Amino acid sequence: LQGEEDWKGAAEILSRIPLSSSQRQISDEYKAKMYVRIAMLYLEDEDEVTAETFVGRSHVIIGQPDFNNLEVKYQHQACRARIYDAKRKFQDAARHYYELSQVSKATVVAILGDAAAAKADQLDEMIEQQSLDALTKAVVCVILAPAGPERSRTLAMLYKDERTSKITTYLMLQKIYMERVVRAPEIAEFQQHLKPHQMATTSDGLTVLQKAMIEHNLFAAAKMYNNITFTELGFFLHVEPEKAEKIARDMILEDRIAGSIDQIDGMIYFEQGSEAMRQWDAEIAGACTAVNDITQYIADNYPTISMPNE
After folding, report:
1. In this model, does residue 277 exceed pLDDT 50?
2. Which residues contact 96 (CB under 8 A, 6 or more apart)?
3. Most buried among 82, 96, 106, 293, by the most CB within 10 A?
4. Count of C-beta atoms within a 10 Å radius of residue 86
5. Residues contacting residue 127 through CB under 8 Å, at least 6 positions apart
């Protein structure tokens, strides 16, 4: 069935295997391997809801400290990233894709086996390309994630990674990280790198990309202005004043920007962060970078413990 690309049919057949049967002993490693395989098939069929069910079953096993199958761990991590991506949980997807991009050569050799790795032509190039592919997906997802402090920290971690200068979306990442206003031609160019679900229309009538860019530009406006009228903000964001007010209100209520709204005067007042808060954000970004360096060191020198469980 897989040869015929009948992903759903193959998944349904495998899911009928009684892995929880009390009549025979089945190892946890085999169960996890089958659950992940079934999830991968459902993802190929673009059924992330069912795939998530099987990923959840495998997660209980893979999360155990004595589980050491690196191949299954890697596939599990890839499934989680794709599910978060498909469900538009872009912040979580970016984190998982970034972890996948950090898989070291030693880990890949452990997954392939020494014999297979020795036969693989241009192994280093293959590993680098896989890492860059995962890194590109991480960058796309973090750009689409809701603007706010959490995304800013992830942006800082990705922007400071030397590898990102090699990917095609680097200039957009740079502009988003620098909190600069993104113009229509730049948005149109970035859109070419998106998948269909990343361009879907949300409940407020905007596409995922439109909403992300409007929120980012509003986040950038909050850094440039102390206050602005609804009309001026609407013109700035290329939306109706009422929609601009709603987006700003939602971001303020969700603590993604600091400010207040005066509906009588039709004004939005932005509260600029204090020097202490800016220093605090810088220290958090520095800590994230340090953790990233430590993670990379562990991945390079201790591959058996480097694959994340989540």
Report:
1. no
2. 77, 80, 81, 84
3. 96
4. 19
5. 103, 105, 108
The predicted-structure confidence for 3-51, as pLDDT tens digits, reads as follows: 566 778 888 888 887 777 656 678 888 889 999 999 999 998 888 899 9
How far apart CA 82 and CA 94 sit, in angstroms, is 10
Counting every residue written for the chain, the total comes to 310
Burial of 278 (0-12, 13-18, 19+ CB in 10 A): exposed
- In angstroms, the CA 52 to CA 290 distance is 32
Instruction: Pull the structure tokens for residue 43.
Output: 């993802």
- Give the Cα separation of 3 and 5 in Å (integer): 5
The whole-number pLDDT of residue 158 equals 94
Asked whether the predicted pLDDT for residue 58 surpasses 70, the reply is: yes
Strand 227-229 and strand 259-262: the pairing is unpaired
Residues in contact with 49: Cβ distance below 8 Å, sequence separation at least 6, in sequence order: none
The whole-angstrom separation of Cα 136 and Cα 128 is 12
If you compute the radius of gyration of the chain from its CA atoms, what whole number of angstroms results?
A: 22
**pTM (2 decimals)?**
0.77
Q: Name 149's Cβ contacts closer than 8 Å, sequence gap at least 6.
A: 256, 281
65-106 tens-digit pLDDT: 888 888 888 899 999 999 999 999 999 999 999 999 988 766
- The CA-based angle 153-174-289, given to 5 degrees, is 35
